[in-house]
Amino acid sequence: MQSWLIFVFGLGVLGQGEMCDFELVTREEWGARPPTDVQTMQDPVPYVIIHHTYQPPACSSSEDCIKAMRWMQDFHQIDRKWNDIGYNFVIGGDGKAYTGRGWSVVGAHSPSYNNQSIGISLIGDWRVELPPPKQIETARKVIDCGVQTGKIRPDYKLFGHQQVRQGTECPGQRLLDEISTWDHFSKTPPFVWVPNEIPT
């Protein structure tokens, strides 16, 4: 099977022949419902924020990863009343990237950063264990693709969710340790959102 697919931008519109070296599962392919609203953001964004899902747990087959995507959309859209699944992209243990809100769309993953970042979540609980190598590799390729296609700034800063939001373990300490070795990782975010306070 070919390891690349024509990359899909935003909510499923094909880019102008741009190709990125990973397999992308479109919203249509994983059975997403339409968003209740779409807010666009200006490209390229200056931040990338890494998450883990915690729940649902890690998935190794595409069938299970699709179930996880549907569960997350139900939880975010129905239970939390968000416009859509919160993340821009989600990475499964099958090594595939799943389109959440996609490029150029404001997410619901990191308060005060949603309109200027790409939120990428790795399915699973990565507090103690490290995600499989192919899951990590795909996350890095999504970031590289965003830079190559003008969706992420070449001088972007990379953070784990807990660095920019007080009171969460996300993306898990083991995954945070891993991303701290990646290019563009920053120890000092410009601001940290604190629950129950009005963001500045």
Which descriptor suits the 3D outline? globular
Order of helices and strands: EEEHEHEEEHEHH
CATH superfamily: Peptidoglycan recognition protein-like
| Beta-strand percentage range | 15-25%
Major sheet characteristics: 6 strands, mixed
Major beta sheet, strand line-up: 3-6-5-7-4-8
Percent in helix: 10-25%
CATH uppermost class: Alpha Beta
Average pLDDT across residues? 90
What tags apply to this protein structure?
200 residues, alpha/beta, Lysozyme-like, two-stranded antiparallel sheet
Compact summary:
With 200 residues, the chain is α/β, with parallel strands linked by helices. The chain has helices at residues 27-30, 62-79, 133-148, 161-164, 173-179; strands spanning 5-9, 13-20, 24-25, 45-52, 89-91, 97-99, 117-122, 152-160. The protein has a single domain (24-180), classed as Lysozyme-like (3-Layer(aba) Sandwich).
Characterization of this structure:
This protein is an alpha/beta fold and 200 residues long. It has one domain (24-180): Peptidoglycan recognition protein-like (Lysozyme-like, 3-Layer(aba) Sandwich), CATH 3.40.80.10. Helices cover 24% and strands 22% of the residues. It has five helices and eight strands, in the order βββαβαβββαβαα. The strands form two sheets. A six-stranded mixed β-sheet has the order 3-6-5-7-4-8. Strands 1-2 form a two-stranded antiparallel ribbon. A hairpin with a 3-residue loop joins strand 1 and strand 2. The N and C termini lie far apart (48 Å). This is Peptidoglycan-recognition protein. Keywords: Disulfide bond, Immunity, Innate immunity, Signal. Peptidoglycan-recognition protein probably involved in innate immunity by binding to peptidoglycans (PGN) of bacteria and activating the prophenoloxidase (proPO) cascade immune response. Binds to 1,3-beta-D-glucan and PGN. GO terms for molecular function: N-acetylmuramoyl-L-alanine amidase activity; peptidoglycan binding; zinc ion binding.
